[in-house]
Amino acid sequence: MHPILKDVIAVIVGVVIGSLVNGAIIMVSGNIIPPPAGLDITTEEGLKAGMHLMQPKHFIFPFLAHAIGTFVGAYIAARFGAHKMIAAMIIGVFFLIGGVWMVMIMPSPVWFTIVDLAGAYLPVAYFAGRIARGAERNDLA
Predict the structure, then answer these.
(1) In whole angstroms, what is the distance from residue 103 CA to residue 101 CA?
(2) How far apart are CA 108 and CA 67, in angstroms?
(3) Which pLDDT tens digit goes with each residue over 37-82?
(4) Number of independent structural domains in the chain
(5) What is the DSSP letter of 37?
(6) How far apart are CA 97 and CA 7, in angstroms?
């Protein structure tokens, strides 16, 4: 298979699986750390109206969803793509763009925006790419 086609397929699969992981974590988050009483987290309007009720603990799972979703997607793309680190970083950029979009449409505390955008995407994608490259080297040994 041509290396670029291999990368494109790996990135598409990484985006899809990473997005599913992200969504799954968000879906279970309210069962682990319940939202504040009276806050409707099922709609964008409900979240916007009740964001002031959120405490730092309520941002743990959104951060984990973003970081773990990015990690899984980047690892898959790097593990199966021809250009390991490039595929991983494309996933990181893709998810970072999604994170920036969310910041634009959904207000959040400044501290969370900084931590999330600076820590959950590109560094995690880089880390996943490094691990995937190392795993491949071990497979070849």
Answers:
(1) 5
(2) 17
(3) 888 777 888 888 888 889 999 999 999 999 999 999 999 999 999 9
(4) 1
(5) T
(6) 20
Neighbours of 5 (CB within 10 A): 10
Q: What is the CA radius of gyration of the chain?
A: 17
Q: Reduced to 3 DSSP states, what percent helix, strand and coil does the chain have, rounded to the nearest 5?
A: 80, 0, 20
Alpha helices in 33-109 (DSSP H): 44-50, 60-80, 84-105
- Looking up tokens 């009720």 gives 53
Write out the residue range of the structural domain in which residue 108 sits. Answer: 3-140
pLDDT tens, position by position, 71-86 = 999 999 999 999 999 9
Q: Cα-Cα-Cα-Cα dihedral of 83, 85, 86, 92, to 10°?
A: 140
Do residues 100 and 75 touch, judged by C-beta distance below 8 A? Answer: no
Residue written as tokens 């071990």? 138
Could you tell me which of 90, 102, 11, 10 has the C-alpha nearest to residue 65?
A: 102
User: What type of residue is 23?
Assistant: G
pTM: 0.91
